[in-house]
Write a structure and sequence with these properties.
Elements (H helix, E strand, L loop, with lengths): L13 E4 L5 E5 L2 E5 L12 H24 L5 E11 L4 E12 L4 H14 L1 H6 L4 E8 L5
Parallel strand pairs: 5-6
Antiparallel strand pairs: 1-2, 2-3, 4-5
Amino acid sequence: MNGPNPPKMQFDVVSVRLSGHASESRCKQATIALDTDMAGNPQAFNPAELLLAALSACMIKGIERVVPILKFDLRGVEVRVHGVRQDVPPRMESISYEIIVDTNEPDRRLDLLHENVKKFGTVFNTVSPGTELAGVLRRKVEPS
């Protein structure tokens, strides 16, 4: 035995309906506008988009976590996520992603970075068992 288990991380978010057209979520000192209007709201994330944003944020945060450990030279990251929703029962059927990394690191180091994202991402590992989740991590290609 390695001793007692460390305390588990806990998270709290409060979401409030402001009107029939607007809602928001609050956490710490941050606020996110929510699209809860049945007609849609182009100025806010709907629940499915929030899930995709959480997944992409998880990927970027995972990269930020391992960059100093791996001594990985990183200039930037962009994550593109696409989700497909099925109607019956309503659920996210599949999610595909592309992580674009601005770096001169060799391909094997890019593969290692991608493995870390998949292995240690909280949201990634929560979504993965119930959704077809697949994607690539590739190097940013400068326009010629």
